[in-house]
Each structure stands twice: as C-alpha cells, then as structure tokens.
Amino acid sequence: MDIIANYGTTLVLVAALFGFLMAWGIGANDVANAMGTSVGTKSLTIRQAIIIAMIFEFAGAYLAGGEVTATIRNGIIDSNAFADTPDLLVLGMIASLLAAGAWLILASYFGWPVSTTHSIIGAIVGFAVVSIGPEAVQWSKFGGIVGSWIITPAISGVIAYFMFISVQKLIFNTDDPLNNAKRYVPFYMFLTALVICLVTIKKGLTHVGLHLTDGEGILLSIAISIAVAFAGWLYIRGQHYNPQDDSKMHFANVEKVFGILMIITACAMAFAHGSNDVANAIGPLSAVASIVAAGGEIGGSSHIAWWILPLGGIGIVIGLATMGEKVMATVGTGITHLTPSRGFAAQLATAATVVIASGTGLPISTTQTLVGAVMGVGLARGIAALNLGVLRNIVVSWVITLPAGAILAIAIFYVLQICFS
Description:
Elements: H1 2-40, H2 46-64, H3 66-74, H4 86-110, H5 116-131, H6 139-172, H7 177-204, H8 214-238, H9 245-248, H10 252-293, H11 308-323, H12 325-333, H13 340-360, H14 366-379, H15 388-420
C-alpha cells in the first residue's frame, strides 16, 4: 500500500508508457489480421492498407473497445486475492504490459504472427502465480478463454468455408459469372456493413453518448447497410470490364468486382480488430489507473479513464504503420493462395467472429480466428491448397507465446519490486 501512496503518479505514467508499447506491438503484429489478406490479394497496396487500418483500427478501439476490456481487467485473476496487497497487483499489471509488448515487438521483427491475447494472458497468469499463488488465477475463466482459442478458429473457418462455397455456387459455377458478380456482390456488401454497424451502434456509441434501443439500433444498421450496398452497386455498374483480361487470368473481371468488396471487408476487419485487441493493452492499464485513483482499493468494476482508449488506439496505429509489413506478408501470402473472392470470405468470417466475441466480452485471439478463416477458404479447394509447413510454424509460435509472456512477466515483476521497494 505504501508503494501506491508514495509512487501513485509514477506508477500510472509507467503503466501508460508500457501500455502504449503493448499497443504498438499489437499494431505491429496484428496488422496482418486486419490487412494481410487485402494486401495478399493485391486489392490494396501496403500504403493504402495502412491508411485504411489507421482510420478503422482507431475507430474500433475508441468506439467499441470498452466491452472486452472488463474481461481482461477483472476476469482472468481473482482481484479479491490482492485485496490486502494492491501494490502487487499494480506492479504485476505493469510487468505484464512490458512483457507482452516486448514479446510482440520481437515476434513482429521476425515476422511471426503470434497471439496478442496469448501474450497478455500468459503474462498476467505468470505474475499472479508467483506473487500470490495459483489460487489467484480464476482457472475456470482461464479455461473458457483457452477454449475460445479452439472454438473461434473453428467458427470462423466454418463461416469462411460456407461463405466461399456460396460465392462459387452463385457466381463462379454459373454461365455468366461477371453479371452474377455484379448482382450478388452488393448483397455481400450489405452483410459486411450490417456486421460492423450492429456492434458499433449497439456496443460502441455509448462511449460517445449515443444510446439507442435494440430496435432503433437494428433499424439504423439495416438502413446504413442498404445505403452501402446501393453505393457499391452504383460503383460496380460504373466500372469498365475488359473481356480480354479474362484470357490472361481466368475470372479476372469477377475478381475485379470482389476487389472492390475487399476494401469494405478490410475496413470491417480493421474495426473488428481494434474493438477486440485494444483490450489487451488498455485492460491492465485501466486496472492500474483505477486502483491508484482509489488509493489502493480494488473495486469490482470501474470506469475507463477518458484518455486510456485513445492511447491504445494511437499505439495500435503507430505500430502497424512502422512494423507491420513482415507479419502482413506471412498471413497474406504464406498460408494459401488468395484471390479477392477468397480473401473476402476469410475477412468477413473473421470480422463477424471477432465482432461477436468483442460484443459479448470474450477476449479471443484475432490471429487464430483469421488463420481459421483462411484455412476454411483453402479447404474449400482441397487440403492441397494449404501450405502445411507455414501453418505448422504458426502453431509453434502460438505454443511458445503463452510461456514466453509468463516468463518475461515474472522476471520484470521481480525487477519492479526491487525498483519500488
């Protein structure tokens, strides 16, 4: 308790710095989840992808990032176990931010698409076990989170599989694929816009003071989605399609239509990613700020300080702009050959899965969700379409991440205890 009384402001500043570093690492590594498929399909250049991601990652973090933060802040460890020693909880959360952020930046440097959720949860569990003991960890909730790492890739994979099968049935396996693409792609635009509008209006806009009933939110979401689909329909109709392009690459004009759709799904994916993964950076930071503000009292819940969500959003944006290219290449081109139609199916499935999880407060792994979706698209063309070697390396990096976060957090926790004792 003396540490909080004597160093309260310093602890918050250090936590903010390390929280920003963690957000930087999230942006650097998980930019592949938001933009890798768009760049891999050549629907967007790296520069265009970064600009789109900057806007929508920050919007997702600021508008819809508060719901899942409560799970990270209060759900993994039993805060009551730290009631008599809140200083240990504060130091542990700070150590977790630095440990997870350092691991993410290292992984990004080598191009490994690791899980930011694994990183921070492993770090939090690590410090909790050495500071209080195994009883400080709420293993039932931890088990549920671990289960989600298996369930969500499966869900996104199934959604992506059937999404791409529907594209094949309605467009590619028909007598007139181009005209059918012009007919059905606006409907896919409607679905994409609806997914993102529902979570934004229902879960996100309370942060900016707009409160709507469920009925009002659904009607507004449908209205906006219809407008997006209509604008897309007009844009598609106004494009020029050269039949000679199909002689160079089969279905080139159809893929051109889907390239337009990829821009919309890229926006949805970036928003979904920002809404879910910002919690990994600001959850521990929010815990530190609320405990220090309460003079060491650990409350069951607390409001997120106004400056925390923007801090996380800005950190994600800077990270993806400065260090995102290597991981983007791994996911965008390494797992399977992606075309705009395949990339669309993977991105929409991932966005839908992540947005649903974010709205329910479950911190899933965006990395694993996207890999599951890309695998689903690949499996729609047969197991031979997957690069099993790349998948094996990705899974190994996931396994390493959890203990790496724990070990680093334990070491940093002991260092912080020495520094502030």
